[in-house]
Description:
Mean pLDDT: 81
CATH topology of the domain at 103-293: MetI-like fold
CATH superfamily of the domain at 103-293: MetI-like
Number of strands: 2
Strand order of the largest sheet: 1-2
Oligomer: single chain
Radius of gyration: 30 Å
Amino acid sequence: MSLETSDRPTATEPARTPGPAGSRVPASTPNLDPAPARRGARTTRRRRAGGLGIAAAAAGFILLLLVLQEVLTRSGVLPADYFPPASEILGALVDEVATGDFWSALAATATTWLLALVISVVGGSLLGLLIGVVPPLEAFLHPVIEFLRPVPSVALIPLVVLTIGTQSSAALTLAVFAAFWQVLVPAIAGARSVHPITADTARAFSFSRVQRVRYIQLPSMLPYLATATRLAASTALILVVTAEIIIGIHGLGQEIALSRSASNPARMYAYIAVTGVVGIAVNALVRRAERALGTNGSEGR
């Protein structure tokens, strides 16, 4: 009877593959542990639950304020001429939503805001990239940027009305001026945030200027631009509504001003509430775009 052992694996012995110098090494097997996937799913569920919890808490707080305001106004603690009951504000909002003027004003404000945001993001990103790529250009433009950036957009309203008039382009100009700087400065910082080792590697591989911009500087700018876009979106909306109120341009701001002039505080508060909802929607939209693009707004790499 032969006493030789077989090289074939048994049921209790893992499969082996030949190693160096005739040694046998257990064959590699794929990692089938489902724990990481389960942990990722749990993290996602916790984030969603946390977001829903925050939203529910915010909604409950707003509801509490509305009930408190209703009670204080009905009891005479708050003057009804300045603080109408929440029920009247809600009724005015329902009445306005049923009219075409409401949707026309909402569309006008949203269109001007979107145009201002696109112009600001595209223009600020391109100029910031150009300044980051061409350092002498910053030395030339730095005094101009530092002079214009602190100027409040509201201070330019008389000049804009004098040169452009009271059309929607006036609100667009003011919003672009305010939001542009929110994008330009982070874009410059992002274009210059390339790690020295990455820059040395690009030079070692003889990257062209276009390749450095496409594969190194643009990816470095994305986290900065994510935060800048969110700030620019809010700034542009604020300036659009402000211009509509002060100049009298068609939109949500004009409806607020008209309600105030007509001594209709319930309608005025209804449009103010709509403006707040639009602001929340704008912020949520930009954050969703960040997640879709894979950026979280964190600066620095």
